[in-house]
Amino acid sequence: MPIPSRPEGHRHGLSRRPASLAGLAALIALAGGAALANDDDGKRTVMDSTPAKGWIITLGGSFEMGPKYDGANSIGPSFMPSISWRRAGEEAGFSAPDDGLDFALYETDRFSVGVVGNYRAGRYASSNGKLFGLRDVPWSIEAGAFAEFWLVPDRLRTRIEVRQGFNGHHGVVADLSADWVERFGSFTFAVGPRLSLASAPFMRRQFGVLPYEATLNGLVTPYKPGGGAKSVGLASSLEYAWSPSLSTTLFARYDRLVGDAANSPLVDKLGQRNQFSVGIGASYSFHIGG
Hints:
Blueprint: H1 22-48, E1 55-67, E2 75-87, E3 101-107, E4 111-120, E5 140-152, E6 156-167, E7 172-184, E8 187-198, H2 200-207, H3 211-217, E9 228-241, E10 246-257, H4 259-262, H5 265-268, E11 274-288
Antiparallel strand pairs: 1-2, 1-11, 3-4, 4-5, 5-6, 6-7, 7-8, 8-9, 9-10, 10-11
């Protein structure tokens, strides 16, 4: 999940002219100093218009406190690193803290599409006595594609990610989001709704209960959920740019499990439908090449 940062500044050197005879220099200073100053300003402008070369690399990371797994009633810490890059002189685009780690294959000022990845924490019976007898759900890597479109340029962004799971689950997850973005000096504020959909294999792995699990656990009953809407929610973030290269971001998200996910005994008996998470992130940008 990439963290937004401001474009880095660039300096351009000014050329120096050879010195001339003292008398001629004095005459020029008295008779044409203003003209030379204007000429020098014009040359400086031409020099400053030279396209910047190289790349801006942004390294970051975020620390979050949130549910230990989908539907949990207990919270735990997590850390997620991030990296992004852009051409020098190119404006840094907006990225929400809960976006997956993505790479655009095609993009314009308002539309982009590419590949995306995400990490999902696992659920382990050893972490909670109430999970006794239930299968562990190992951590998962999710990979897929994303597309985003700015309905209102620089103000309203819509985005969809569709990802296939590996390791912990082998289902498909689709996350849809919209963000209204406002910039106030060094601050960037964003807020918007969230909707998460999931296939039946994902739902059965995360929220299903097999008969033998129910027998061993004693607190839950067998349950076989289907695919569909998993959760609806709201996310917000506030970024502050301390300098052109350093920024920090505070963020929060609320999700409410719905449908078959909310009706699972893992949620109804052992967890909760309301899921809250808060965190803080930081990013540092630097120039290479050119």
